Amino acid sequence: MNFEKKPVLVFWETTRACDLSCIHCRASAITEPLPGELDRDQGFNLIDQVASFDKPYPTLIFTGGDPLHRADIFDLLQYSRKKGVGFALSPAVTDRLDREMLLKIKSVGAISISISLDGARAETHDSIRRIPGTFQKTVDVLKQSNKIGLSAQVNTTVMKRNCEELPELFHLIKGLGVKVWEVFFLVKVGRGNAVEDLSPDENESVCSFLYDASRSGMVVRTVEAPFIRRVAKQRTEVADYQTSDEVYMKLSQKLVALEGKPPEGTVSTLRPSGTLDGDGIIFVGYDGSVHPGGLVPVPLGNVRFESLPEIYQSNELLRQIRARQFSGRCGFCDFKGICGGSRARAYSRYGDALASDPACRYS
Question: Which of 70, 93, 167, 277 has its CA 20 to 30 A from that of 335?
Answer without folding.
Answer: 167
